[in-house]
Amino acid sequence: MKFDHMGVITATLAEGRREMIACLGIREWTQEFTDTVNQVHVQFGRDASGICYELLAPLHEQSPIANALRKRSNILNHVAYLVSDLAAEAERLQSAGAVPTGEPKPAIAYQNRRIQFFLTPLRFIVELIEAPEHQHVYVDSDADRNS
Question: Are 99 and 119 in contact (CB under 8 A)?
Answer without folding.
Answer: yes
